[in-house]
Amino acid sequence: MIPRCRNSISELQSALVSCEKADDFYGQGEVLRQLGHFAKGRGHFKESCEFYMKAHICFRNVKDHFAEAGLLIDLGQALESLDDHDAASSAYRDANRALKWAVEQENEKTTLMTASKEDKARPHRFAEKMLYLFLPKGQREHIPGDLEEEFKEVILPKFGRSYAQFWYWSQVLRSIVASNKWAARFIAYGGGVAGFYQVAKGLFQDWGWIEGDESEIKEKEVKRNL
Amino acid sequence: MYIYIVGEIEKFPSMNRASLGEFEHIVLAAVLRLRDDAYGMMIRREILERTGQDASIGAVYTTLDRLKAKGFVSSYVGEKTAERGGRSKKYFEITSSGVEALQASVERLASMWDGVLRPGPAGAI
Questions:
Q1: Nearest residue of B to residue A188 by CA position?
Q2: A142-150 vs A161-179: helix axis angle to the nearest 10?
Q3: Mean of all residue pLDDT scores within chain B
Q4: Among B85, B93, B7, B59, which Cα is nearest to A180's?
Q5: Contacts of A148 in chain B (CB under 8 A)
Q6: CA torsion angle for A177, B82, B28, A140 (degrees, to 10)?
Q7: Does B14 touch chain A (CB under 8 A)?
Q8: Which residues are B90's β-sheet partners?
Q9: Cβ of B70 under 8 Å from any chain A Cβ?
Q10: What pLDDT is attached to residue B10?
Q11: Residue range A83-95: average pLDDT?
């Protein structure tokens, strides 16, 4: 909750109480800043300094360094009005530091966003690894290169990220099957044997040809005795 | 379904030096059409545009490798580019024996169709 342009001190105080109840540090900081401006406008510089200090702590808690720097400048101006020039210059120094942090924070955010955008604009790494694992040696360089080129230049701009990833995966699986008979056989026969084993196990256990492990045998005995 | 998949795998074309299979014929024709720009993805695109057949890139490369083993195409490695993730292209060129094989294949097909196809209403055969 971010209160804006409160007209009376009672409105600001009630907003502050509700922000405190909701543990909304950002809202508290904003209300305290307005209270500070309110007090400063009426010539109560000492009170305004107190409000600014509290607001500064709130903004530091939520790591909003831009807001923190702005508040410290307001604090410095209020302190200058009280003729406390040492404290004012210290507030300005802190404001400068907060501003540097804010710029660093913004740079980090931009770097992260750029990295995530680059990640989204390329095929899944696992699919690429699958290709590398199952393709014959001579095709490991050219097939992934061709697929990535098509992915970036045609499919992604035309159909969007989700379809592009689906397309890439389908091409990976089809390419593995088409270019490596042994991999295809391994997947097909391996899957078949595993499936057959599961079905046979289920059937034989139902017909009582396989007794199962010790716990199952005990369960069956208990049931028989009952 | 399972039997179908296994059957499809076992139908992989075998090495037959004498003739061209249908897909080999198509791939060889695509290489001939593309001339200096014949690499995997362009060949795949050409086949898709001309025949509507959505072949996988793996199938194209497997066929090209087979054609290379038969001596119908030659290959050379091209430049590495950023959009390919720093990987190089593999260009293919049709050889003179490849052109001869393609012509022979076309002639064989034409001689088989000769006298069977005749113009008429609704393309009567």
A1: B6
A2: 150
A3: 82
A4: B59
A5: 83-85, 87
A6: -30
A7: no
A8: B77
A9: no
A10: 57
A11: 86
